[in-house]
Amino acid sequence: MRKRIALILLTALSLLVLHPEVGWAQQGLNVNRIFQQYGHAKGYKMVEMNDAKLKGYALHVYKSLVFKRQNAQIDEWLGLDRKRARKIREVVQDGKVTSGYYMMPPLDGYNRYILFSKNGRGGGAVIFIEGHLSPDDIMKLCYSRN
Protein backbone atom coordinates (compact mmCIF):
# COMPACT_ATOMS: atom_id res chain seq x y z
CA MET A 1 0.00 0.00 0.00
CA ARG A 2 2.78 2.44 0.92
CA LYS A 3 4.64 1.58 -2.28
CA ARG A 4 1.52 2.35 -4.31
CA ILE A 5 1.04 5.73 -2.60
CA ALA A 6 4.73 6.54 -3.10
CA LEU A 7 4.46 5.63 -6.79
CA ILE A 8 1.38 7.84 -7.23
CA LEU A 9 3.10 10.78 -5.51
CA LEU A 10 6.26 10.28 -7.57
CA THR A 11 4.23 10.20 -10.78
CA ALA A 12 2.33 13.37 -9.85
CA LEU A 13 5.52 15.21 -8.92
CA SER A 14 7.28 14.17 -12.11
CA LEU A 15 4.30 15.42 -14.12
CA LEU A 16 4.56 18.79 -12.42
CA VAL A 17 8.30 18.93 -13.04
CA LEU A 18 8.00 17.93 -16.71
CA HIS A 19 4.86 19.99 -17.36
CA PRO A 20 4.53 22.66 -14.65
CA GLU A 21 1.81 24.45 -16.61
CA VAL A 22 -0.57 21.54 -16.06
CA GLY A 23 -1.11 22.39 -12.40
CA TRP A 24 -1.41 26.12 -12.94
CA ALA A 25 -3.64 26.53 -16.00
CA GLN A 26 -6.75 27.26 -13.97
CA GLN A 27 -4.80 29.22 -11.36
CA GLY A 28 -7.10 31.56 -9.48
CA LEU A 29 -10.25 30.13 -11.10
CA ASN A 30 -13.04 28.24 -9.40
CA VAL A 31 -13.39 25.95 -12.43
CA ASN A 32 -10.23 24.28 -11.12
CA ARG A 33 -12.21 23.19 -8.08
CA ILE A 34 -14.80 21.56 -10.36
CA PHE A 35 -12.15 19.44 -12.08
CA GLN A 36 -10.45 18.58 -8.79
CA GLN A 37 -13.68 17.64 -7.02
CA TYR A 38 -15.46 15.75 -9.79
CA GLY A 39 -12.78 14.81 -12.34
CA HIS A 40 -12.39 11.28 -11.02
CA ALA A 41 -15.81 10.86 -9.40
CA LYS A 42 -18.32 8.22 -10.41
CA GLY A 43 -20.81 9.51 -12.98
CA TYR A 44 -18.39 12.13 -14.37
CA LYS A 45 -16.09 11.86 -17.39
CA MET A 46 -13.00 14.09 -17.65
CA VAL A 47 -10.74 14.61 -20.65
CA GLU A 48 -7.48 16.54 -20.39
CA MET A 49 -5.09 17.46 -23.21
CA ASN A 50 -2.00 19.65 -23.08
CA ASP A 51 -0.32 21.28 -26.09
CA ALA A 52 -2.83 19.71 -28.47
CA LYS A 53 -4.62 20.71 -31.66
CA LEU A 54 -8.38 20.65 -31.94
CA LYS A 55 -10.00 21.41 -35.30
CA GLY A 56 -6.77 23.15 -36.36
CA TYR A 57 -6.52 25.35 -33.26
CA ALA A 58 -3.47 25.06 -31.02
CA LEU A 59 -4.53 24.67 -27.40
CA HIS A 60 -2.15 24.98 -24.49
CA VAL A 61 -4.65 23.31 -22.13
CA TYR A 62 -8.00 21.64 -22.79
CA LYS A 63 -10.08 20.10 -20.00
CA SER A 64 -13.65 18.90 -20.17
CA LEU A 65 -16.00 17.33 -17.67
CA VAL A 66 -19.24 15.68 -18.72
CA PHE A 67 -21.86 14.72 -16.16
CA LYS A 68 -25.30 13.13 -16.07
CA ARG A 69 -26.55 14.95 -12.98
CA GLN A 70 -26.02 18.65 -12.36
CA ASN A 71 -24.51 19.49 -9.02
CA ALA A 72 -25.42 22.77 -7.27
CA GLN A 73 -21.76 23.18 -6.31
CA ILE A 74 -20.78 23.33 -10.01
CA ASP A 75 -23.29 26.14 -10.59
CA GLU A 76 -21.95 28.02 -7.57
CA TRP A 77 -18.31 27.79 -8.72
CA LEU A 78 -19.24 28.80 -12.28
CA GLY A 79 -21.10 31.79 -10.82
CA LEU A 80 -18.01 32.87 -8.89
CA ASP A 81 -15.89 32.72 -12.05
CA ARG A 82 -18.60 34.64 -13.93
CA LYS A 83 -18.04 37.60 -11.57
CA ARG A 84 -14.40 37.84 -12.67
CA ALA A 85 -14.99 37.22 -16.40
CA ARG A 86 -13.88 39.82 -18.92
CA LYS A 87 -16.44 38.72 -21.48
CA ILE A 88 -19.69 36.83 -20.90
CA ARG A 89 -21.89 35.11 -23.48
CA GLU A 90 -24.86 33.11 -22.21
CA VAL A 91 -27.94 31.41 -23.60
CA VAL A 92 -31.02 31.82 -21.39
CA GLN A 93 -34.03 29.56 -21.85
CA ASP A 94 -37.18 29.84 -19.75
CA GLY A 95 -35.36 32.24 -17.42
CA LYS A 96 -32.43 29.88 -16.76
CA VAL A 97 -28.88 30.00 -18.13
CA THR A 98 -28.45 26.82 -20.19
CA SER A 99 -25.05 27.42 -21.80
CA GLY A 100 -22.37 29.99 -22.35
CA TYR A 101 -18.76 30.95 -22.13
CA TYR A 102 -16.70 33.22 -19.94
CA MET A 103 -13.48 34.81 -21.11
CA MET A 104 -11.30 34.99 -18.03
CA PRO A 105 -8.27 37.26 -17.40
CA PRO A 106 -5.26 35.95 -19.33
CA LEU A 107 -2.39 34.18 -17.61
CA ASP A 108 1.19 34.11 -18.93
CA GLY A 109 0.03 35.44 -22.32
CA TYR A 110 -2.66 32.78 -22.80
CA ASN A 111 -6.36 33.54 -23.10
CA ARG A 112 -8.52 31.42 -20.80
CA TYR A 113 -12.11 30.39 -21.43
CA ILE A 114 -14.72 28.53 -19.42
CA LEU A 115 -17.51 27.00 -21.50
CA PHE A 116 -20.52 25.14 -20.14
CA SER A 117 -23.82 23.65 -21.15
CA LYS A 118 -26.71 22.02 -19.32
CA ASN A 119 -29.26 19.72 -20.88
CA GLY A 120 -32.88 19.58 -19.82
CA ARG A 121 -32.38 16.23 -18.07
CA GLY A 122 -29.93 17.53 -15.45
CA GLY A 123 -26.70 16.65 -17.24
CA GLY A 124 -24.18 18.88 -18.90
CA ALA A 125 -20.55 19.73 -19.50
CA VAL A 126 -17.87 22.16 -18.35
CA ILE A 127 -14.86 22.93 -20.55
CA PHE A 128 -11.71 24.92 -19.82
CA ILE A 129 -9.56 26.10 -22.73
CA GLU A 130 -6.29 27.98 -22.54
CA GLY A 131 -4.40 29.18 -25.60
CA HIS A 132 -3.86 32.00 -28.06
CA LEU A 133 -7.48 31.85 -29.23
CA SER A 134 -9.69 34.89 -29.72
CA PRO A 135 -13.38 34.93 -28.75
CA ASP A 136 -14.18 34.47 -32.47
CA ASP A 137 -11.93 31.40 -32.54
CA ILE A 138 -13.83 29.94 -29.59
CA MET A 139 -17.15 30.45 -31.39
CA LYS A 140 -15.79 28.81 -34.57
CA LEU A 141 -14.32 25.94 -32.57
CA CYS A 142 -17.59 25.28 -30.76
CA TYR A 143 -20.11 25.90 -33.49
CA SER A 144 -18.43 24.98 -36.79
CA ARG A 145 -19.71 21.84 -38.47
CA ASN A 146 -16.27 20.68 -39.70
Rounded to the nearest angstrom, the distance between the terminal CA atoms is 48 Å
Strand order across the biggest sheet? 1-2-6-5-4-3
Average pLDDT value? 81
Q: What's the CATH topology label?
A: Protein Transport Mog1p, Chain A
Determine the fraction of residues in helical runs and give it as a percent range.
Answer: 25-40%
Give the radius of gyration: 16 Å
Elements, N to C (H/E)? HHHEEHEEEEH
In the CATH scheme, the class would be Alpha Beta
Please, could you describe this protein's structure?
This protein has a six-stranded antiparallel sheet with strand order 1-2-6-5-4-3. The chain contains five helices and six strands. The chain has 146 residues and is of the alpha+beta class. The protein has helices spanning 2-18, 21-24, 31-38, 72-84, 135-143; strands spanning 44-54, 57-67, 87-93, 96-107, 110-118, 124-131. The chain is 35% helix and 40% strand.
Short description:
This protein has 146 residues and is of the alpha+beta class.
Per-chain topology:
Blueprint: H1 2-18, H2 21-24, H3 31-38, E1 44-54, E2 57-67, H4 72-84, E3 87-93, E4 96-107, E5 110-118, E6 124-131, H5 135-143
Antiparallel strand pairs: 1-2, 2-6, 3-4, 4-5, 5-6
Which features would summarize this protein structure in a list?
alpha+beta; 6-stranded antiparallel beta sheet; Protein Transport Mog1p, Chain A; disordered N terminus; 146 residues; 6 strands
